[in-house]
Design a protein that fits this description.
The structure is a single chain. The chain is mainly β. It has a single domain, classed as Lipid/polyisoprenoid-binding, YceI-like (Lipocalin). It is built from two helices and twelve strands, in the order αββββββαββββββ. The protein has an eight-stranded antiparallel barrel with strand order 1-4-5-7-8-9-10-12. The protein is elongated.
């Protein structure tokens, strides 16, 4: 009986050690990660306009990767709404301060009231496409502007010895998070409801 218990204990310990070895924790590297947001224009004179490009320069978060069981993987990401910056790419320099103020102000993000933007995964699914490369669908809760919505992020994930890189793109809508697209020029030009987002998240081993 004692030997049986010892064997069960040894087997359990070996299984736990194997599971721990399969998992790898990572910390997101802000300097190597970027989220870009593209807000287009619509309306009568939209053809004469351009899109606003915004970047989130200080992405934080953690990743738990389990290549042997992708469903056990998870990710958390966050950045501060006030840190979002209008790049000014393709638009008059004089317009940038006004666009920046409008974006972070009460008309849109209201960063003073809702300072954090976060994403927490609830499930991970996908498949390996080659050694160390995976196509995943990461479904989780996105908290933005005081509201939380379920969102599925498509990701191409590449795992190397010293880092994990995830890239992808998705589309959000202002209206899904209680925000209204702002307008200008008497309503002849306004921001589209759709928001295009592309991301490159780099994380390195360690939590």
């Amino acid at each position: 009986m004692g030997r049986a218990r010892a064997f069960v204990t040894l087997l359990f310990a070996a299984s736990a050690a194997a599971a721990a070895a399969a998992e790898q924790g990572y910390t997101v590297v802000a300097d190597e990660s970027v989220v870009r947001i593209h807000v287009g224009k619509s309306g009568l004179f939209a053809f004469a306009g351009h899109e606003h490009e915004v970047v989130a320069p200080s992405v934080r978060g953690t990743v738990l990767a389990d290549p042997a069981d992708l469903a056990r993987s998870s990710v958390t990401l966050s950045f501060d709404a006030a840190d979002l910056k209008v790049t000014g790419e393709g638009e008059p320099a004089k317009d940038v301060p006004e666009v920046q103020e409008t974006m972070t102000g009460p008309k849109v993000l209201d960063a003073a009231r809702f300072p954090a933007i976060t994403f927490r995964s609830q499930s991970v699914a996908g498949k390996a496409v080659s050694a160390g490369i995976y196509d995943l669908q990461v479904t989780g809760d996105l908290a933005l502007h005081g509201m939380t919505r379920s969102l599925t992020l498509p990701m191409r994930v590449e795992v190397a010895a010293d880092k994990l890189t995830a890239t992808g793109k998705t589309v959000l809508r202002h209206s899904d998070f209680g925000m209204k697209p702002v307008s200008a020029g008497g309503g002849t030009v306004k921001v589209k409801n759709e928001i295009g987002i592309d991301y490159r998240i780099v994380a390195r081993p360690g939590r």
